[in-house]
Design goal:
The complex is a heterodimer. In chain A, 37% of the residues lie in helices and 28% in strands. By secondary structure, chain A is an alpha/beta fold. Chain A starts with a strand and ends in a 10-residue tail after the last helix. By secondary structure, chain B is of the alpha/beta class. Classes of the chains: A alpha/beta, B alpha/beta.
Chain lengths: 254, 478
């Protein structure tokens, strides 16, 4: 589904990614772990097409397409979803309206019929159950005045509505208390499907206790330095990043 | 005489004849008492109105064009303007296919219905539907309730007493330079009177007014809501409006008698000029309402057009417990300059006012909010809340805020909040990651910013205004 080869990218003058290789197949859940500053979020941004991240080398194919040739909205239409570490507020734009506009933009790009307000409301209500949400959140501005946990739940809700083929969740677990973490994890688990892949970008093992990954990768210094099965996450839990990513001993997983 | 000479001669004659014909319907350029007498005579006006015009003209001569607005433009030569031309029907087109494709594209994007498109672009609509009969139906409905709604000229002819009583009662002849000019030479406009206790059953808009064409560059509007009456009035439209006259100086007066309510909504989309600002309309407007006891006046405006906007819809809160509201979205893109805001003059006790102003600047646009909240000595317990927000798109535009507050009564409460923000890269990326194009993302963010104001507009107007905001910003990002 996703093939990343030799990906290099920089922000401003600084090269952050020094050649990343990654392969993700349909139905798989991958976890990308690593200390702060290892390039995890930059990788997520580069895949989603953020303009502040400049790709300087390498290739990315997604469902047979050259992903790097597409603007962000085309990548979204192709089925790529990025759950933001810091979801953005858009004051005055109702959450429900934003969601419907996004869904219809994606449907339109795929040549599907747009969904009218009534049909959409039914879909949205169904999906809201996933994150145990009531309707009051839907009439508020997008993330406007939401708590950290509410914002993350909103990301999961958006993912559920947009039904992407590949979802990259950038630290969807950060800043969550244990209850919110369970809600988010349950939402993510509900979206696991044979034709869908997930990439969880995280610092911590604790999300992986709730969402079992098929593959775990460790990023350090702008590269993937080690890959393995779920047991790798447990190893990190015990030994910190020092053991698996030499030179990064200062960054210990809690 | 050779054949050629004969032809030359006949052609010449024809040419002159043609010019003479035009002259009969058009005054020479320039302004003088004679021209004003000519205007008044041509329109068959009563003596009081001629006197009123002359008084305005004499005072105008003593006045100076205001220099304080935060706008720049080349000097206007008032003696080169033609102040009277007979109303001419617009050139009628056979079908929509003859309409400028650029205009059609704008119509489509705004979602304006076909029939409406035809009317706006001057296609003979009778073939599509009978607009006159629709208008007549509405007129009959209004007449049943005793509501008068007609062109200003008709009002002068048919209801001179009402015009004489209220004209200039809110905006005096010599109020300001442009209002005085308008008072001297105004061409036509709208008049409405709603009798005591009557709730006007529909939104009044020039759409339903017969003879609405060609109100010209000096438009005059007078609305009177008698005691306990209610009226909602819509002015302008979202479709792009072009006009051969660059200077527009309109006056709008609203009289809200005790217990009445007037809601006045404007969407202004005059030609803003090209990307360099050439050729756009100068829109210098005086709009003011006087609210008596317990009366309420709401101004809502969406200003996206004109090269220069100079406009401060205001409320004199004369009566005790009267209420004034001002909701505004002003957008300045390319080289547009907008200096707009409101004045809330609290005279009566417990008068209340609300000001919500949303300025959007893009390109090299300059957007200025200028507002005055004045609490007079007798206005015990008066309250005002003002909120002025500015949104910047790009880094070559400007937003300016000049709030003036004068409080002469210690029991008054005045609150002012202001914010300035910028459309951020992360907001755009967030929207685009969810599948929205950059243009749609900007439009959505801007509409969210303007929501507090847009929700005050009548429903169908609001939908078009939303699309208009997005369209006016096309190409402003990236």
């Amino acid at each position: 589904m996703l093939r990343v080869q030799g990906l290099k990218a920089r922000i401003g003058d600084r090269e952050i990614l020094h050649g990343v290789d990654l392969a993700v197949d349909a139905g798989e859940v991958h976890a990308i772990m690593g200390p702060n500053g290892s390039g995890k979020s930059t990788l997520a941004s580069a895949l989603a097409g953020r303009e502040t991240v400049e790709v300087t080398a390498g290739s990315v194919t997604f469902l047979g397409q050259d992903l790097l040739a597409l603007p962000p909205e085309k990548r979204a239409a192709a089925g790529l979803f990025l759950g933001f570490q810091y979801p953005v507020e858009i004051p005055g734009v109702a959450n429900l309206y934003f969601l419907r506009t996004a869904l219809n933009a994606v449907r339109k790009a795929r040549g599907e019929e747009e969904m009218d307000a009534m049909d959409f409301l039914a879909v949205a209500k169904e999906k809201m159950k996933l994150v145990r949400w009531d309707q009051s959140f839907m009439t508020r501005g997008v993330n406007e005045g939401f708590s950290g946990g509410e914002k993350k739940r909103n990301e999961v809700l958006q993912m559920a509505v947009l039904e992407p083929r590949l979802a990259i969740l950038d630290e969807v677990d950060s800043g969550l208390d244990i209850d919110a973490l369970c809600v988010v994890a349950d939402g993510v688990n509900a979206l696991r499907a044979p034709d869908r892949a997930l990439i969880l970008v995280t610092h911590y093992q604790r999300l992986l206790d709730h969402v079992k990954p098929d593959r775990v990768h460790v990023m350090a210094g702008g590269r993937i330095v080690r890959s393995g099965g779920p047991e790798l996450a447990l190893e990190l839990e015990r030994g910190g990043y020092g053991g698996v990513a030499p030179g990064h001993a200062e960054a210990r997983a809690p | 005489m050779s054949q050629d000479a004969i032809r030359e001669l006949t052609e010449q004659k024809y040419k002159y004849g043609f010019v003479t014909d035009v002259e009969a319907d058009q005054a020479p350029p320039g302004l003088s008492e004679d021209i004003i007498r000519l205007i008044s005579r041509k329109k068959g006006e009563p003596a009081f109105l001629l006197e009123w015009r002359l008084k305005a003209y004499r005072q105008w001569l003593q006045m100076e064009e205001p220099r304080w607005p935060n706008v720049k433009y080349a000097p206007i030569d008032y003696q080169s303007i033609v102040y009277y031309s007979a109303p001419r029907p617009r050139k009628q087109l056979g079908s929509l296919d003859e309409v400028d494709p650029e205009l059609r594209t704008a119509f489509e994007k705004l979602g304006i219905p076909l029939v409406e498109q035809a009317r706006l672009s001057g296609v003979a609509v009778d073939a599509v539907f009978d607009s006159v009969s629709v208008a007549t139906t509405y007129k009959e409905k209004l007449a049943e309730k005793g509501i008068i709604f007609c062109s200003f000229s008709e009002a002068v002819r048919n209801h001179p007493a009402l015009v004489e009583r209220w004209l200039g009662s809110v905006v005096p002849v010599a109020d300001n330079f442009f209002a005085a000019l308008n008072s001297a030479v105004f061409s036509d406009g709208s008049f409405a009177y709603v009798p005591p206790g009557v709730r006007c059953p529909m939104e009044l808009s020039t759409y339903f007014r017969i003879n609405a064409e060609n109100t010209g560059q000096f438009e005059r509007t007078l609305l009177v809501a008698d005691e306990g009456a209610y009226v909602s009035y819509l002015e302008g439209c979202t479709a792009p409006m072009r006009d051969e006259n660059q200077l527009h100086a309109a006056v709008v007066e609203l009289v809200a008698l005790p217990g009445s309510q007037i809601k006045y909504s404007t969407v202004q989309n005059w030609y803003p000029g090209d990307a360099e600002g050439r050729g756009g309309i100068f829109n210098f407007v005086t709009k003011r309402a006087k609210a008596m006891e317990r009366a309420k006046v709401s101004w809502t405006q969406v200003e996206t057009g004109s090269a220069i906007t100079w406009k401060y819809p205001s409320c004199i809160l004369q009566g005790d417990d009267s209420v004034g509201e001002f909701y505004s979205v002003a957008l300045a893109n390319h080289r547009q300059q907008a200096d707009t805001g409101t004045k809330m003059i609290h005279v009566g006790k417990r008068t209340r006012s609300t000001i919500i102003s949303k300025g959007i600047s893009a390109g090299r646009g300059q957007n200025t909010y200028r507002g005055l909240v004045k609490i007079q000595k007798g206005a015990a317990g008066a309250r005002n809340y003002s909120q002025c927000d500015s949104l910047l798109i790009g880094d070559t535009c400007g937003a300016h805020t000049f709030p003036y507050i004068e409080v002469k009564n210690p029991t008054a409460r005045v609150e002012h909040e202001a914010t300035t923000s910028r459309i951020a890269e992360d907001q755009l990326f967030y929207c685009r990651q969810r599948g929205l194009s950059e243009e749609d993302a900007v439009s959505m963010i801007v509409n969210g910013f303007a929501r507090q104001v847009l929700k005050e507009l009548p429903m169908e107007f609001a939908v078009e205004a939303q699309k208009l905001l997005g369209m006016s910003l096309e190409g402003s990002v990236g």
